[in-house]
Specification:
Length: 115
């Protein structure tokens, strides 16, 4: 079983920034991609962003222009840089590997945006 290690969540004031990371053993060698999701308390899971195995990136309309996804092939890590955070971004953020048989979920890292 592949263990995904998420980190970077926390508490931030509106307008602030956080960078989430998700490290996946074998991410590069298996040519995986990754999706980030988020789930607010009592809400449905919402897709946030994607970086495909080929490097294609995509964003939900609600975060486009504020969030940026990237990957480090050396450390098998995907980053989600979150800027201009809003209270409505408050949620648990989860990473999920995709493409080429990679199908694993992380446990999530909480993000709270509040004044």
């Amino acid at each position: 079983q592949v263990q995904l290690a998420e980190s970077g969540g926390g508490f931030v004031q509106p307008g602030g920034s956080l960078r989430l990371s998700c490290t996946v053993p074998g991410f590069t060698s298996r040519n995986c991609g990754m999706d980030w999701y988020r789930q607010a308390a009592g809400g449905q899971r919402e897709w946030v962003s994607r970086i495909s195995s080929g490097g294609y990136t995509a964003y939900a309309a609600s975060v486009r222009g504020r969030f940026a996804i990237s990957r480090d092939r050396v450390t098998d890590t995907v980053y989600l840089q979150m800027n201009s955070l809003k209270p409505e971004d408050t949620a648990t953020y989860l990473c999920k590997t995709i493409d080429n048989g990679c199908d694993y979920w992380g446990r999530g890292t909480p993000v709270t945006v509040s004044s």
